[in-house]
Write a structure and sequence with these properties.
The protein contains 7 helices and 7 strands. The protein is an alpha+beta fold and about 280 residues long. Strands 1, 2, 3, 4 and 5 form a 5-stranded antiparallel beta sheet that branches. The protein has a two-stranded antiparallel ribbon with strand order 6-7.
Length: about 280
C-alpha cells in the first residue's frame, strides 16, 4: 500500500429507510403521535378535578335580580383559583401540538399518495381544505396541491372537504391556520356550576343578593375560536375523520387500518373513560 494512502478504512452499513419510496408509515406515525399528545390533556383535567374536589361548594351567589336558570360559568374568586394560568397554557400547548401532528399526518399522506401514483416525488403537495366546490376543481384550485394523484385518491380527499359536509376539516383549518400564522390556539379550562335556582334564598349578610344551591360541578375544556366547542368533541371528530381518509390508502398497500376507539370522556369527578387507538 502506498505510504500516502490511509492504513485504515471505515465502512458504514446504512439501512434503507422509508423515505426512499412511497410509504404511508410516516402518516400513520404522526397520526399516532397526535393521539398520544392529545391524551396528555387527561392529566391536566385530572389535576384540575383534584382542586375542585378540595373546595367546599355549597352555594353560588346570584345577581340582585332573579338568577337565570341553567348553567352558570363562574370566573371570579373564590372559584377561579381551581384553574390556573399554567393550566390554560399547558392545555393550549397540548392542543397546538396535537393539531400539528394531525395536520402533518394528512400532508404526508398526500405527498406519498401522489408519489405512488406518479412514480416520482411531487413538489408543492399538501392536504388542501377549502370551503367552496369551485375552489376545489377550478384552474389553480386546491387540487393543484394533490400532486396529480389518481382520480380515485382525489375523490377520497374531496369527500372530506367542508363543502361536502366535512365539519372536522373545517375545524382543523380554522384552528391550524390560527396556530401556524397568528398566535397559538387557546383552550380555556372552565369550571361550570349547575345551580338550583328555584331554591334560591336571600344572603343573610346582603338581602339584595340571592344564594342558589350548587347541584353539579363540571369541567369543560373549550375552544373560544370554535364558539366554545368542547376540546374532546372537536378532536374526537378530527381523529375519526382523519382515520376515514387515511385507511383506504393503507388498505391498498395491504396494511392494517387505523381503529378508532370509544370517545374519551372526562366525568364530573375526573374519571377518564377511554379506549386506546391502535393501528
Amino acid at each position: 500500500m502506498p505510504e500516502d494512502e490511509p492504513s485504515h478504512i471505515y465502512l458504514a452499513f446504512v439501512p434503507r429507510s422509508d423515505t426512499e419510496k412511497p410509504s404511508y408509515w410516516w402518516s400513520v406515525l404522526r397520526y399516532m403521535q397526535a393521539y398520544r399528545t392529545m391524551s396528555q390533556m387527561e392529566l391536566v383535567a385530572q389535576r384540575i378535578h383534584q382542586r375542585i374536589r378540595a373546595v367546599d361548594w355549597p352555594w353560588v351567589r346570584g345577581l340582585p335580580d332573579e338568577p337565570h336558570p341553567g348553567a352558570l360559568t363562574w370566573e371570579t374568586p373564590p372559584y377561579a383559583p381551581v384553574v390556573t394560568a399554567d393550566d390554560k397554557r399547558e392545555a393550549s400547548f397540548i392542543a397546538s401540538q396535537t393539531l400539528h401532528y394531525l395536520r402533518s399526518s394528512l400532508d404526508h399522506l398526500v405527498y406519498n399518495a401522489s408519489w405512488a401514483d406518479r412514480r416520482a416525488p411531487q413538489k408543492g403537495t399538501q392536504f388542501p381544505i377549502v370551503d367552496e366546490r369551485k375552489k376545489w376543481s377550478s384552474k389553480n384550485g386546491a387540487t393543484k396541491h394533490l400532486g396529480g394523484m389518481s382520480a380515485q385518491h382525489n375523490a377520497i380527499i374531496e369527500s372530506a372537504q367542508p363543502f361536502n359536509g366535512g365539519q372536522w376539516t373545517k375545524d382543523l383549518q380554522v384552528l391550524s391556520n390560527a396556530d401556524k400564522h397568528r398566535v397559538g390556539i387557546e383552550v380555556s379550562p372552565t369550571v361550570q356550576l349547575h345551580v338550583h335556582t328555584g331554591g334560591a334564598i336571600a344572603d343573610p349578610n346582603n338581602p339584595g343578593v340571592k344564594l342558589a344551591q350548587i347541584e353539579e360541578i363540571s369541567l369543560r375544556l373549550l375552544f373560544p375560536a370554535l364558539h366554545n366547542q368542547e376540546f374532546w368533541d372537536v378532536f374526537n371528530a378530527m381523529f375519526v375523520g382523519a382515520a376515514e381518509v387515511i385507511n383506504p390508502f393503507l388498505r391498498e398497500q395491504g396494511l392494517e387500518a387505523i381503529k378508532t376507539g370509544a370517545p374519551r370522556i372526562v366525568t364530573a369527578d375526573g374519571v377518564i373513560d377511554s379506549e386506546e387507538v391502535t393501528n
